[in-house]
Every structure is written in structure tokens, then in C-alpha cells.
Amino acid sequence: MKILIIGGTGLIRRAVVSELGDRHEVLTASRNSGNFNVDITSTDSIKAMFDRAGSIDAIISTTGQVEFVSFEEMQPENYQLGLDSKLMGQVNLVLIGRDYLNDAGSFTLTTGILNVDPIATGSSAAMVNAGVEGFVKSAAIDMPKGFRINAVSPTVVLEAMDKYAPYFRGYEPVPVAKAALAYSKSVEAHQTGQVIRSGY
């Protein structure tokens, strides 16, 4: 398959590229690196990326920004970042990507554990994750051309605990390579409309 992975240079994206790269042609896109540059908050940028990439068998998003701010300090613009980036950015990858995805192709979006098991400062992430998951479950019902769509919801990964441990006390992290297996399941198996929870 020809797979396009949209995301930064973070742990999850690198692990997904490693997991799928031995079996498939993998292209990457992000704001500042990869085969293509893209700003997922801009529909023009998304379309330009797909125009350059051409037809694709699977589109994976491991991207999307949110603000981690205490609720006492949260303002509308703090929530708006997550809505514009992680929610509508990923939704627009699907809406525009429909015209570039080959028949029976798949979309895989990324959410996270925080709408299931919230943490302090995580209200924006929880809200956006729940929105992405609702979109995936509903959109799967009437996807055209045999398209499939799933979301992967990873827990915190072991390799990031040096940075995130204070926020995730009591959580059992998983190796990032294990989290990446959920993306293979979404792309290479046959499920649709699923939230594939990785590590919890």
C-alpha cells in the first residue's frame, strides 16, 4: 500500500513509520519536515499536500495540538487551538482526503486516553478527543467507495514518561512500539468505525 502519515517528528509518528515501513510505501507530511509540508489548520495547505502526494491507499493522522492549561486559567482561545487543530484539522484531512483515497482505502485518526481517564489541565484534550471519536463512529456509517475510518487512542507511552510522569501518576505506560501496533490494525485489518485503544 501507499500510506501517507501526517504528523510531526514525535514518538508516535516515528514508531508508526517504523511499524509500517517494512511492508508498505510510507510517505510523511508535517509542518516542517517529511516528504510534504502541511498545516492541518488550513484547508488550502491540506489540499496542496494531497495534490503533491497523489492517490493514496491509507491516510494516517498522528497530529493535532491542544493546550494543557488549568481550567481556572482556560480562555476560549485556549480551547480554540484544539478545535482548529486536533479536531477540525483531522476532520478536514478526511473531508479533503476523500478525493485522493483509493477505493477501499482507510483513514486513521488519533485521539488519546484523556477523554476516558482525565487529568488536571486536560479539559481541552478530553473535549477534542471525544469529538474525534464521535466523528469516526458516525462517519463510518456512510463512508463512500468502501472507505474505512478508525481512531487510535493511545495511553501515555513509556518513552515520554520523563516529560509527562507528573501528569500521569498511577498510569501504566506502554512502549511506543506497542502503541504503533494499533495503527497497523486500523490500516491492515478490516474494522471500521472503531476506537482502537492502545495500552488501556
How would you explain this protein's 3D organization?
With 200 residues, the chain is an alpha/beta fold. It is 39% helix and 20% strand. The protein has a seven-stranded parallel β-sheet with strand order 3-2-1-4-5-6-7, sandwiched between helices. The protein is globular. The mean pLDDT is 97.
**What's the end-to-end separation, in Å?**
29 Å
Name the shape in a single word: globular
Tally of alpha and pi helices: 6
Q: Count every beta strand, where a strand is a DSSP E run of 2 or more residues.
A: 7
Low-confidence residue ranges:
none
Order of strands, main sheet, comes to 3-2-1-4-5-6-7
Helix content: 25-40%
Structural class by sheet pairing and helices: alpha/beta
Radius of gyration: 16 Å
Mean pLDDT: 97
List SSEs in N-to-C order: EHEEHEHEHEHHE
Percentage of β-strand residues: 15-25%
The largest pleated sheet is described as: 7 strands, parallel
Indicate the topology.
Blueprint: E1 2-6, H1 11-21, E2 25-30, E3 36-37, H2 43-53, E4 56-61, H3 76-97, E5 101-110, H4 123-139, E6 148-154, H5 161-164, H6 176-188, E7 195-198
Parallel strand pairs: 1-2, 1-4, 2-3, 4-5, 5-6, 6-7
Helix pairs in contact: 1-6, 2-3, 3-4
Brief characterization of the structure:
With 200 residues, the protein is an alpha/beta fold. It is built from six helices and seven strands; from the N terminus they run βαββαβαβαβααβ. It is globular, with a radius of gyration of 16 Å.
